[in-house]
Every structure is written in C-alpha cells, then in structure tokens.
Design brief:
The structure holds 2 protein chains of 2 kinds. By secondary structure, chain A is mainly beta. Chain A has no helices and 12 strands. Chain B contains no helices and 11 strands. In chain B, strand 5 and strand 6 form a beta hairpin. The chains are: A mainly beta, B mainly beta. The interface between A and B is medium-sized, with 25 and 29 residues.
Chain lengths: 116, 114
C-alpha cells in the first residue's frame, strides 16, 4: 500500500530565506514521487518528479528534492524564497509496479506563506 | 496548445439536482482522473479511467458517476445522492506509461450547493 505524510501543514518563511517542505512516504514497490504546487482556486502544477533515476531531482522555479530511500523521505527545498512561492504544495506517491499502479496518493498539503 | 479544460469554472446547484462537470483533454493521454478537494484534506480520488469504456471507483465514489466513451472526455456527474457535494473538483490525466506518469491537471470547477 502507498501513503504519504507531509509533516508540516503550514510553513512561514521570509523572502530570500531557504524553504524546506518535508514529505515521508510509504510504498511497497518502486515509487514514483512528485511535488505539485497549487495557487488559490487553480489547478495543480508539477514542480518535479522522481522515477528511479537520479536521487537529487531539480524542478522548475529553483526547487529541488532529494529521494532518500533509507529515510523514506522526499523533502522539497529552495535556497531563496520569493513572494510568488506563496501557495499550497502537495507531495504525491504512486507505486510503479503494484496492483495500485495508476493511482496516486496525495499528502494533505503544506501551505507556504512568504513574508517580505 | 495541449492541455486539460474543465467547465464550468463555477457551478451552483440546488439540493436534489444532478449536475455534470465537463473534462476534456487534447494531450492524447490514456488515463483520466477526478478528484475532490476540500480545505485541509488534500485531494481525494473519486473515479479514474485507464482506457476508453472502462473506469474504476476511487476512495469516495458514492454519489458520483462517470463515463468514458471517448479518449478525450471524462465527464463527472454529481448526483442527488451525494450528501455534501460543495467542493472544488479537479480533473487530471496521464500518459498511462509507468515511466512517464506525471499527472496534468485542469483548472478545476467549484461546485456550490444552494
């Protein structure tokens, strides 16, 4: 079975400081992992994905995430927050080779607030 | 431009009425999904379809129905049996390939029951 836990429901950062959004997952098989961003009343946009290639994944808008199998984590980071990063972020897992292939499990989301 | 369209953007329904939300994609994707989003609960899967003329129930299918008669289209009907339908509804699609399986999302439909 697959599941995902986002460890922080809210994160507040100052503009120009680093951002860290934490995600732990559970997967019985080889997981695909994703981070999405959602601005208010909009659809979700893919930031980056991991699919068993390089463990350090670079995404759009300066975001990156590191897959750590031993820790079952896929934390999202950005070195310097921008005001436009204020949004909700979702960590998502999908088992590539299980009976639940084709289904995606979403975390509850992390709301990011950026202060000037 | 390729993408997913959902209509309408806002929908108001009286109690006891069925309503249908539209989802169309021109990405040539095989798989399509419907999610419901409520504040603080992330996205919950209602139905998904991995191929035309076939679909499976998700985690919260009660009170909803779907059809998949064409590859491009996956409409969702919210029936009067759905006890609390007010929510933001998101449609998504994927190529259906194990190595290229990221989801693409539509802009969403906000349904309000009056």
């Amino acid at each position: 079975a697959q599941s995902v836990t986002q460890l922080d429901s809210h994160v507040s950062v100052s503009e120009g400081t680093p951002v860290l959004l934490r995600c732990n997952y559970s997967s019985s098989y080889s997981p695909s992992l994703f981070w999405y961003v959602q601005h208010p009343n909009k659809g979700l946009q893919l930031l980056l994905k991991y699919t068993s290639a390089a463990t350090l994944v670079k995404g759009i808008n300066g975001f990156e995430a590191e897959f750590k199998k031993s820790e079952t984590s896929f934390h999202l980071t950005k070195p310097s927050a921008h005001m436009s990063d204020a949004a909700e972020y979702f960590c998502v897992v999908s088992d590539q080779y299980s009976d639940s292939w084709g289904k995606f499990q979403f975390g509850a989301g992390t709301q990011v607030v950026v202060t000037p | 431009d390729g993408g997913i369209t959902q209509s309408p953007k806002y929908l108001f329904r009286k109690e006891g009425q069925n309503v249908t939300l539209s989802c169309e994609q021109n990405l040539n994707h095989d798989a399509m999904y419907w999610y419901r989003q409520d504040p603080g609960q992330g996205l919950r899967l209602i139905y998904y379809s991995q191929i035309v003329n076939d679909f499976q129930k998700g985690d919260i299918a009660e009170g909803y129905s779907v059809s998949r008669e064409k590859k491009e289209s996956f409409p969702l009907t919210v029936t009067s049996a759905q006890k609390n339908p007010t929510a933001f509804y998101l449609c998504a699609s994927t190529l259906g390939d194990r190595d290229y399986n990221e989801q693409f999302f539509g802009p969403g439909t906000r349904l309000t029951v009056l």
